[in-house]
Every structure is written in structure tokens, then in C-alpha cells.
Predict the 3D structure of the following.
Amino acid sequence: METGAKLISVQNITKTFNKGAVVALKDCSIDIATGEVVAIIGPSGSGKSTLLRCLNLLDIPDSGRICFHDVDITGKKMNIDLHRRKMGMVFQHFNLFPHMTVQKNITLAPLKLGLKTKSEADAQALALLERIGLADKADEYPAMLSGGQKQRIAIIRALAMHPEVMLFDEPTSALDPEMVGEVLDLMYALAKDGMTMAVVTHEMGFAREVAHRVVFMDEGAIVEENEPRAFFTSPRQDRTQKFLAKVLRVM
Amino acid sequence: MSEFFFGSAGFINFNFLPKYGMYFIQGVEYTLLLSVGSVLLAIVPALVLALMRLSKNRLVRGLSGAYIAVFRSTPLLVQLTIIYFGVFYFIKVPNIIIFGFVDLSRFIPGVVALALNSAAYVAEIIRAGILAVDFGQTEAARSLGLSPLQSMRLVVLPQAIKNILPALANEVITMVKESSICSTYGMMEIMWAAKTVSGTTYISVGPFVLAALIYFCINFPAGKAIEAIERRMRRGDRR
Ligand SMILES: Nc1ncnc2c1ncn2[C@@H]1O[C@H](COP(=O)(O)OP(=O)(O)OP(=O)(O)O)[C@@H](O)[C@H]1O
Ligand SMILES: [Mg+2]
């Protein structure tokens, strides 16, 4: 797929919880192009996670459309499992499978979905582990690993499916400070390789240096989006300015 | 005083033992067959009921809920009677004797009735075990493209087993006690041994005291062992 073509198109989605009592997203629209890295920032409860989780339908929008490769994946008859294979997801709390070795965590989906033979899947897992310097952990269980190691393995577990886009929901927020760097480095390398990424993050450094575009959300709406330099130096909206003043002061 | 202990209604009048001890030994075997057998039989239907209970479809959820409600809200003796005389009136089990004393034409209706009852309880055990697994596990599995059933089978259930097994073992203990009701229809388990011996020898209380002792000696150590294993498993978790 050529770089710059529209990969994901979110059109006017709304999402409520608790029978409409909580409005998490109101009329959000955003396009993500192939090869683009989008950072999504905003205060707690602003709907960042919900927007990201709607992209692979972990949360199903009440209204609006989400197109992946120009196909509306919110359609009733759509087999979402097939699309999810192409959308890697990385969670704040890693969600590695604790009853499986690192190797099995990585090979599970490619094997059980019949995409690879056992030897292909094993070879790929090992190559991915070597890439992040954790080949010696292949036979360990997740409980034996540090948070940074777990998150990097969660990332390559998603990569083993050859996704076209990677979705990250605060991938470094549950980590001890000294481990944040190793995970960001891996994400940085992915971005450089041309991976399409949507990253919900509190790491303003990452947003500024790696993202092609920064999206600011507040109260369920996309308030402002811009390329990082302009976004951070001359935010247009009041709410963006206030938010940036707050988070950049503590940095 | 000695009448209180050793008379025909004496609490520790065990004079029947030399002649009728065998009834109790067979009774223990029969009881264990009934209780272990019924819980094992209950597992698959219970798993289906539990998954139905967790379904998004209201009708499917309702059906399973109704089954569980009916079996938990009516006495086991009533269920046993209806199944023994009703259901197994239409299904004829041949009079085959196994192990020398277990008559299948009685045992099968009994174990099926206990299993149908147990399925309702085991379903709730399995459901609780599944719900205790972090939902993030399901989300991670689904995000990789696994289907709902694959996620359940490969990711959630293997982790839920740890929560389910101890409760399942406790269900066997419950069934060891509950199966005493099967004596009503001639299944030769512990309670039947006590009733029969008491009727033949006119030693009215002793055989039942012995039955109580036997039930206790099975269930109390078993319960303690389950507790110990559970503690061990929990300690392993924290590592
Ligand atoms: N499963 C849910 N059930 C009920 N309410 C929910 C659910 N998920 C999110 N919400 C609510 O929707 C709103 C948006 O939540 P969301 O998690 O998307 O925010 P966020 O921007 O990711 O916040 P944070 O930075 O704290 O992660 C919040 O008010 C939240 O309480
Ligand atoms: Mg969030």
C-alpha cells in the first residue's frame, strides 16, 4: 500500500456507556494515512482510549462509521476478526497470557489462525525476540519478566500478525520510569520503519519527536489536531493551551 | 447408662459389624461412584450452561438461567424421583451388575439425576471462574484476531481452571453427602447400608452413627486437603 493513502477513516462516531448516561465520544472524525504516526493526547476521561478501542471495535460506536481500507467495519455482517488481524493492539497493562511461555504468546495467533506452520511461527518468534534482545526469554513465563520486557514482548506479539496499523493505549503508563525508555525506543524504531501507528500517550516527548500529527481530545471531542511543531508552539484552542500549559510545566 | 451406649438403640452398638461390615465397605464404594461420577458427568453440560449464561443473546442466557434456577430451587429428592420414575420410565437401562454389587438399572438413573442437579451448581462455579479472569485477556486475544470461542478455549478457560478446580472438588464433597438420598431407591450406598442393617438387626441407631462416622472421615480430610492445595496455589500465584 502506498504511503500517504487513507488507511483508516473515522466518520462522525459517537459512543456512550451505561445506557447513554456517560458520553465518551461525541461526533469524532479522523483519518489516518498509511505510514502515519498519530499521537492522541488529552486529559483523563477525555475519550482517548475509547476512540482508540473503537478503531478495532473493542468498543462498538453507537453511530457513525469506521472505514478500514475503505470498507465500513462497523457493518452488521462484517467479520471483525479478519480485520483485527491487520490491526495490532498494545495495552497499558500488557495483557500477556500468563499461562503461556513468551514464545507461545507470540506464536499463538499465527498458529491457531492457520497463517503459519509451527516451524515458521517459531522462527518468526525467535527473530522478533532477537530484534528486541530477549531471545533468551523465549521459554520464560511472563511473570518472570520486568514491565518493560513484558510490554516489548506484547508489541512483538502484535507484530507477529504482520499488522498494517498498530494501536497503542498508554503503552508506558504502567511502567517504572527506568523502563519507559526501552519501550519508547522500540516504538520509535517501528515508526522509522514506516509502521502506521495511533498512540494514546502522556509522553509529550514522543508526541513531539515521533508523531507526524498530534490530536488533542477533551470531553469526548477532538478539539484540535496539527503537526507537532505547530501544535506545541502555537496551539489554536483555549483548551489546548490550558492543557499544554499544565502538562509541559511538569515536564 | 450402658443401655444408652450399647442397647438396641445404643449410640455405639456396633455388634452388627462382623456380619454386615461388608455392606458398609460396598456402600463407601457406591457412594464414591455416585458422587465422583455425577460431578464428572456434570462438567460438560455445566460448561455449556456457563457459556450460555455468559452469552450476549438474551434467549440463550434465559434458557440456561431457567435450568439453573429450577434445579437450585427444588429439592434433590423431588428431582431424583421425577427423573428416576419419569425420565427413566421411557429409557430402559438393562439389569447389568458391575463390580459385583452395582446394578446399572438403578445406578444410571441415580447418577444422571445427581449429575443434572450438580450441573446447575457447577455451571455457576465455572461462570464465576471465567469471570474472575481479567477481561484484558479476552481483549488481547480478540485483538490478535482470535474468535470468541478460540479466545475462551485457548486463553480464558486455561486460566479459569485454577479458580474452578477447588470449587469442583468441594462439589464432590457436597455430592458425597447429597447422594445419601439415593438410598431411597435402593442404590446400595452408605446410607442404604445403614438402613438395611438397622432394619435386619433391630439395632436402630448404631448403623447410622457408623454411617455418620464414615461420611465424616471421607469429607473432613478431603475438605482440609482442598483448602491446603488452594492455599498452595494462591502462594504460587504471587510469585
Ligand atoms: N466500559 C466503560 N463503561 C462505562 N464508562 C466508561 C467505559 N469506558 C470508558 N468509560 C467512560 O468514558 C469516558 C472516556 O473514557 P476513556 O477511557 O476513553 O478516557 P481516556 O481519555 O482514555 O482517559 P484516561 O487518560 O484516564 O485513560 C470516561 O468518562 C469513562 O469513565
Ligand atoms: Mg485511557
